[in-house]
Amino acid sequence: MLSGCAALESLELKENLGIGRLCISSRTLKSLGFCVDSRYGGVFLRELVIEDAPCLERLLALDPKGGPATIRIICAPKLEILGMLSEDISELHLGRTIFQKMIAASLKTKMHSMRVLFLSSAGPNLDAVVNFLKCFPCLEKLYVIFQSLSRPMDVINNAQKYDQLGPIECFQLHLKKVVLKNYDGEKRSSINFAEFFLRNAKGRKEMKITLPYHRQHNWFADLQSVLRYQLRASPDAQIELRCGTRDCFTRNKHTHDLSMDDPFDMPSIGCWRCKELGLGDTTYKV
């Protein structure tokens, strides 16, 4: 059916039932948004295959917990925006590169077209994010939204152990913007995560960090002093800190707006507590 739609550019697949495996083959499709709804039982989409999509630029999961178990991208040479990827995707195939629940099982394919990447990370998990970065040497924007760990005793080690390895290519010139959502500035693992990008991303121009809860000004001052020390890789870059904004990015409403350069670049709604206290726009810059 898609092959016969000679003018189709944007497609959304929502709450798919009755189809276990879907192959996409379209010479004109530029944007594909999808999610799966398994609440009502029956057959639901288990595998999405991008078989032949030479014009596809965006592959957007509309709900990080509503993706098919397996995604295979076979031919999408112009793909430049990908997300939101999460551990709920059991297998992700990017050419010959394979991720299993966000863990790299094989890193054999690099996609130079990829410009924007959005990851949903438990922990946060620096290992998983770094392996994705290795696949996309020309990446310009990275979004990471942190999810709570399933158990309080789960601890992810985000020690900085990549400095002695070969350089991550996008760090040298291309990666200009890093956005961290639902950031927990009280956890050492989260602070290590942010510091890693501050120390190593030489081309970075800005980092935006939003916390899911309200914080007082003096708390931000302490965090600013910690992060300011790590500005060595890109001393002219700016860091913006905001509080009280819990983001989920589910059901992205801008899938069809192809005029948007980045469908994930949405303004924050701000902290309700700061507004209640009459503090207005509480954005702290480092």
Summary?
It contains five helices and 16 strands. The protein folds into two domains: 1-8 and 17-79 and 86-109, no CATH class; 116-286, no CATH class. With 286 residues, the protein is of the alpha/beta class.
Descriptive report:
- Pfam families: FBD, LRR_At5g56370.
- Residues 165-208 form the FBD domain.
- The chain has 286 residues and is of the alpha/beta class.
- It folds into 2 domains: 1-8 and 17-79 and 86-109, no CATH class; 116-286, no CATH class.
- It is 15% helix and 26% strand.
- It is built from 5 helices and 16 strands.
- It has helices spanning 126-135, 169-172, 188-200, 217-228, 272-276, and strands at 10-13, 21-25, 31-34, 47-52, 58-61, 70-73, 81-85, 91-94, 97-100, 103-106, 116-122, 141-147, 177-181, 206-210, 238-242, 284-285.
- The strands form 2 sheets. The chain has a 10-stranded mixed sheet with strand order 1-3-5-7-11-12-13-14-15-16, with no helix packed on it. A 6-stranded mixed sheet has the order 2-4-6-8-9-10, covered by helices on one side.
- A hairpin with a 2-residue loop joins strand 9 (97-100) and strand 10 (103-106).
**Largest beta sheet, briefly?**
10 strands, mixed
Number of helices: 5
Q: Radius of gyration over alpha carbons? A: 19 Å
Overall pLDDT, averaged?
A: 81
Taken as a percent bin, the fraction of beta residues is 25-35%
Structural class: alpha/beta
Topology:
Layout (H helix, E strand, L loop, with lengths): L9 E4 L7 E5 L5 E4 L12 E6 L5 E4 L8 E4 L7 E5 L5 E4 L2 E4 L2 E4 L9 E7 L3 H10 L5 E7 L21 H4 L4 E5 L6 H13 L5 E5 L6 H12 L9 E5 L29 H5 L7 E2 L1
Parallel strand pairs: 1-3, 2-4, 3-5, 4-6, 5-7, 6-8, 7-11, 11-12, 12-13, 13-14, 14-15
Antiparallel strand pairs: 8-9, 9-10, 15-16
InterPro entries: F-box_dom-containing, FBD, LRR_FXL15/At3g58940/PEG3-like
Pfam families: FBD, LRR_At5g56370
